[in-house]
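Me: I hope this is not a bother. Any chance you could explain this protein sequence and its structure tokens? It all follows right here:
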Amino acid sequence: IALIKGVEFVKELFSWVKALVVALVIAFIIRTFLFVPVIVDGESMMPTLHNADRMIVNKVPYYFNEPERGDIVVFHATETRDYIKRVIAVPGDTMYYKDDTLYVNDKKVAEPYLKEYKAQMSGVPLTEDFTLEERTGETTVPKGKVFVMGDNRQNSKDSRDIGFVDEDQIVGTTNFVFYPFNDLRSVD
């Protein structure tokens, strides 16, 4: 009888270990290839994102498509630090700011996500005038790279300072804040 109980215990233990291993493998696959949580650190994406917002980064879209203008992306800025910014220009684009207005390929581009901050500026430009060439030395965004900026234009370290972002450094895109729970929201 003791031998039977011992065998049943080993079977039960093996069943639990197997379930745990399967769960860990699934979690590894999801985190490595599909989704990863991220915490917003700083105010460079205000008012769209707030310091300490927790978001889910979706890695899947960039397996099949290139980043698009307006995407909010997480990328490896350094070996130890990731940034979250908005894609302003993609490969082949020309771009500049004039009178607090974005122009991409010589066409005015609406930036509704800046409306709240622009209203607070009392006529002072939120984004200073500059051209792509002044900031990067290039007249167009090179192949395989994007130009990114934070929504809090006066308090953001972005492509104006660090240059273009290599597309292969982009972790994924994000548009859903899941914490704090009282502020669950989708962002554009």
User: Anything to note?
Assistant: Residues 2-34 form the longest helix (33 residues).
